[in-house]
Amino acid sequence: MGSINPQSGTQLGAGIVGGGMGEGPGPDVMAAATLDGNKVVSSDGEHVGKISDIMLDVRNGRIAYAVLSEGGFLGMGSNLHAIPWSALTLDTDEKCFVVDIAAQRLKDDPGFDKDHWPTMADAKWGESTYSYYNRQPYWLATHEVVENDPAVRLEALDSDPVVRPREH
């Protein structure tokens, strides 16, 4: 399952459910390309689309969003939605993702089209998107983990040569 900050209950990654380990590296570590085209089901069981892209926050080394393609035919006329990674659960038994939102609420999200992508690095847009899916933005959750978890803070201090105590 995704990492959870025990103090806040914030899930930092996608959850994983199902029968466990398969052959190869999955399901805990996978190539992003293997997820393209995976079916996505809403929390109320309706097929709502497929994963078309995995968007990376390159500077922070995190998955920012999964892009869901809804409707259309062969990519034409489809509506796209940026789904917070933490709003998804990979179901290895059913070989699909489950998004933690009702189908109608997803359909009510205007999304975007392939020729008019939002500025995904814009914090206001990101906060609005994460809020729509009732999730805390990953960049805030990551910061909170470091601030609220003494073990993480100490580990960060020990690995930072600027603040590491001198050995005598």
Question: Could you provide a short overview of the structure?
Answer:
The chain has four helices and nine strands; from the N terminus they run βββββββββαααα.
What does this molecule look like?
The protein contains four helices and nine strands; from the N terminus they run βββββββββαααα. A seven-stranded mixed beta sheet has the order 3-8-9-4-5-6-7. Strands 1-2 form a two-stranded antiparallel ribbon. The N terminus and C terminus are likely disordered.
Shape: globular
Task: Using the 3D structure, state the CATH architecture.
Answer: Roll
Radius of gyration: 18 Å
Strand numbers in spatial order across the main sheet? 3-8-9-4-5-6-7
Uncertain stretches of 5 or more adjacent residues: 1-9, 148-168
The first-to-last residue Cα distance is 42 Å
Region (Disordered): 1-20
Pfam family, one: PRC
Protein name: PRC-barrel domain containing protein
Biased composition (Polar residues): 1-11
Break the fold down into its secondary structure elements and pairings:
Blueprint: E1 4-5, E2 10-11, E3 15-17, E4 39-42, E5 47-57, E6 62-70, E7 79-84, E8 88-91, E9 96-99, H1 103-108, H2 123-132, H3 138-148, H4 150-159
Parallel strand pairs: 3-8, 4-9
Antiparallel strand pairs: 1-2, 4-5, 5-6, 6-7, 8-9
Features:
PRC_barrel-like_sf; SH3 type barrels; 9 strands; 4 helices; seven-stranded mixed β-sheet; two-stranded antiparallel sheet; disordered N terminus; 22% helix; alpha+beta; PRC-brl_dom; PRC-barrel domain containing protein; 168 residues
